[in-house]
Design a protein that fits this description.
This protein is of the alpha+beta class. The protein has a domain at 321-381. It contains 10 helices and 7 strands. It has a 7-stranded mixed sheet, with helices on both faces. Strand 5 and strand 6 form a beta hairpin. The chain is rod-shaped.
Length: 385
């Protein structure tokens, strides 16, 4: 493997890993250790056990004691394994672990900085694996992700959790109940943790499936907020896909070393089963993304239909109002004609010949009636009345 170290990255790590080795002049008070205090985070070693032939033989008080117990076992026929579980460690603590177990500097930098994509890397006899665990929060209908880093050597396993999930205590209990499996070495721990992470996605997928069903109902009910929820759920599914898609590559990378590193046949079958589960999960996630795209398309179509119906209703209302205006205008014109005639002959001028005409009054009435009749016929033919 090519050397992937960067000077700007390894310099801080060197300072961390050599912190414990620097001697201090006698007579000087020790310098206070610099701690990285993060609210809500309590860095600590969750469990620190040494196993012999798959059975716990010691619970070490410190990582240094674990390393010592392993060194004392050199030359004996029993197979020993140290498993340290660390929760949200500080950079100084990771540096001490790197010094004790000779961890690769670049991998330690990744573990310190966190926020890594799932991956599998081999540095000589040491494996570095990054996994993304997930859990579904029913109360908030959200998916919470947790990052897990694993260092695996011939006789040690170091797990570094940066979140509440996954529950590695349950994985440890499961392996301790099966010493024969745990006796197969650090790779059995890797497969058990990988299996737990993959199985942890099943309730997440069930929760997402339920959310999608609820969104489908909201779409057809015409909920105005459904578009935003579709977008948010699509982002959650995308986050799940980013966490699960690399798992296929991790399983393939592990399988590629079966023959070279003499992996036990039972562990090979174990990994193949995990790989099958990963394939099923990725297929379901892809189906969720396609389903959400279809729902978004249907929602856009329904919104357009509702808008068209509203426009149609507005148009029909406008047309109906126009018809009413036409009728009112027609009758106003019909009634205006007699008023016009009456207004003309109601003017008090002295020289109006019709005022002294014998037939003036009948003529005025006839003119009023004839004008109104003509207007009525015209408006009737044009369907105004």
């Amino acid at each position: 493997m090519a050397d992937r170290r960067h000077p700007q990255l390894t310099a801080p790590l060197t300072a961390l890993t050599t912190l414990a080795r620097r001697p201090r002049p006698s007579g000087l008070a020790p310098e206070p250790a610099t701690r990285l205090e993060l609210p809500g985070r309590a860095p600590k070693v969750i469990d620190n056990a040494v196993y012999s032939n798959g059975k716990r033989v010691a619970t070490a008080e410190s990582p240094a004691e674990s390393r010592t117990l392993l060194q004392l076992a050199d030359g004996f026929t029993d197979s020993r394994l140290a498993w340290l579980g660390v929760y949200r460690p500080e950079p100084r603590q990771v540096g001490e672990l790197a010094e004790l177990f000779d961890l690769p500097e670049l991998a330690v930098e990744d573990a310190i900085h966190a926020h890594q994509r799932p991956k599998f890397e081999r540095y000589g006899e040491t494996l570095f694996v990054v996994l993304k665990a997930a859990r579904y929060l029913d109360a908030r209908e959200e998916v919470e992700f947790g990052e897990l880093h694993l260092f695996l050597g011939r006789d040690f396993v170091i797990t570094i959790r940066h979140a509440e999930s996954p529950d590695l205590a349950r994985v440890r209990r499961r392996l301790e109940s099966d010493p024969e499996l745990l006796a197969k070495g650090s790779e059995s721990v890797l497969y058990a943790i990988l299996d737990a992470v993959v199985d942890g996605y099943l309730p997440v997928l069930a929760g997402l499936d339920k959310d999608i069903d609820e969104i489908e109902l909201e779409v057809f009910r015409g909920d105005p907020q459904v578009s935003r929820r579709i977008y948010e759920l699509s982002q959650e599914v995308l986050d799940v896909q980013r966490a699960t898609a690399p798992l296929s590559g991790i399983c393939s990378a592990i399988a590629a070393g079966f023959e070279k590193y003499g992996v036990d046949e039972e562990l090979r079958a174990y990994l193949r089963d995990v790989a099958d589960h990963v394939t099923g999960i990725n297929e379901r996630v892809d189906a969720f993304r396609s389903q959400l795209r279809d729902i978004l398309t249907v929602n856009a179509t329904l919104v357009a239909q509702r808008q068209n119906e509203e426009m149609k209703t507005l148009s029909e209302t406008s047309i109906a109002q126009g018809e009413e205006v036409k009728k009112i205008s027609a009758w106003a014109a019909i009634l205006f004609a007699p008023s016009l005639v009456g207004g003309v002959y109601g003017m008090n001028f002295d020289h109006m010949p019709e005022r002294t005409w014998v037939y003036g009054y009948p003529f005025a009435l006839t003119l009023m009636f004839a004008t109104s009749l003509v207007l009525y016929v015209i408006f009737k033919r044009r369907d105004w009345i």
